[in-house]
Request: fold
Amino acid sequence: MGVYAITGASSGIGAKTKELLEQEGHKVINIDLKGGDICVNLATAEGRKDAVDKLHEMCPDGLDGMICNAGVSGACGNLALIISLNYFGTVAVATGVYDLLEKKHGSCVVTASNTISQGAGRMDIADLLNNIGDEKRVLELIGSLDSANLSIGNSMYVSTKYALARWVRRVSASWAANGVRINAIAPGNVNTAMTATMSTSAKMALNALPIPTKFGMETLMDASEIAEAMIFLVSPKAGGINGNVMFVDGGTDALLNSEKVY
Amino acid sequence: MKPIEKYIEAMENKDFAGLAELFTKDGILCDYCSNSSSQREYHIYGREAINMFFRNKFGFRQYSIMTAEVVNDEQAEFIASFGGYHIMAIATVREVDADGFIKRLTVRPK
Reply:
């Protein structure tokens, strides 16, 4: 049985993924702000270093899989948190445990979002994240934006997820050449604590993003639907899949972007 | 009302469900105007897909039509707005079934 680490597994998609992996007999280490096996704040440099150091202590023989799932929505009202946790927290943890993954020829799965294909992100921010990679500078640049504005929060969220997916594709070739696969999952809107606490306007926006597999049901994706795909991607069964951004959204992306086959 | 008139009425009212019901179960709506607004074309296959697609477009105010005029039994002209980018368009009902449901409708730049 394998050893897996997952960020943000105290609730939502992460918790379901942890539960299903454990049902398969794997050891799963949860890294989260609260309720984790490793409790750290991945929005900070110290928290990320702490997480990576502790994983090295706990898994000296390596990791079979790293699932970077922790993140906040665009409705959280804190633009700096969106940038620091969603993008920098993920990249730091994934790269920080790369050597552990290399030891076991493991793989990494990163949670993006199906919103990356819907044109709501700010490409300038995504470019800054990927091409400059200076957290302090990016936070200064967004400092003047209105964090209470839902559409700005959403555009920041999409930008971080777009940048994450692009980062995955950029590093995937060299990682795979060294025996470590890396892929991204782009989930649709899921019933989680995050979506349950959304404002009415945010919920209306969700309803305007139909999920074909849920047609007529006015419901969101189930966390287990995303978790099952994550477990597949991180497992050896997906040994031929690398650098892939897999949309697990019940077909929303295909509905809205049928002509985008690549 | 003719199918083209019903189509215009549904589009003007942003009635995505009513719009979808004008089509056969496997009806197709192709909109080539979006190319002009730097988007990809819309090729929407099936009644449910038409429902969901326009629910999204109307919900996010990404598609609307203005100053529509039915010009003959199968065609109507209007200004299509893709999130504020305006394109002169002509919609054509290409094929209907025996019950009057639309099997294929295209929208092209005029």
Q: What stands out?
A: Chain A has a mean pLDDT of 94.
